[in-house]
Amino acid sequence: xxxASPYARKVRIVAIEKxxxxxxxxxxxxxxxxxxxxxxxxGKIPVLIMDDGETLYDSRVIVEFLDYRTPVHRILSQDHxxxxxxxxxxALADGVCDAAVLELVExxxxxxxxxxxxxxRQHQKxxxxxxxxxxxxxxxxxxxxxxxxxxxxxxGCVLGFxxxxxxxxxxxxxYPNLGKFYLTLMKRESFKKTxxxxx
Length: 199
Ligand SMILES: N[C@@H](CCC(=O)N[C@@H](CS)C(=O)NCC(=O)O)C(=O)O
What we know:
Glutathione S-transferase Yfyf (Class Pi), Chain A, domain 2, single chain, mainly alpha, Glutaredoxin, 2% strand, binds glutathione, 199 residues
């Protein structure tokens, strides 16, 4: 995992909320000497390496696995409709992360190789995603059924990632309800302990 990865943060938060201890191994998948592809053919983090050497990826599979390992503080409802609602939130939040990462990677290429159209396309996904999150959250405390769960964790992770890598976006100004929501999340130990440090 990497401290800055929003997907790895999602898994770490779920583990903390559920009191499951994980040994964290840091590995940057973009570094030439990365070991990630030995555990995940897609070369992406997070990967969960189990005691028997079996591996699980991606973050969505890992959080489901962790949630079913212990009934302590379930983050996914047993109710089908609520579960689908949470998964939809997660898909939206992760999709915003995916687009933000693609935009970031493109903007780090040599200027003459960058595609402005590609960056705009990704950025629009980020903007539309934020708009949808704000609209769906409205003035509710939590994303689904007035209960803290996976949807809130996923949204919190993307907001934290935007703070880290897209400071200029100023999403709090545009969407005060998301700002209030993130403040509530940041009161939790799991969010405090996993807050990404600027690198
Ligand atoms: N859908 C995956 C996304 C994971 C992902 O894209 N992780 C990034 C780090 S933030 C990564 O490993 N990128 C390396 C690469 O794409 O080669 C998940 O939820 O785990």
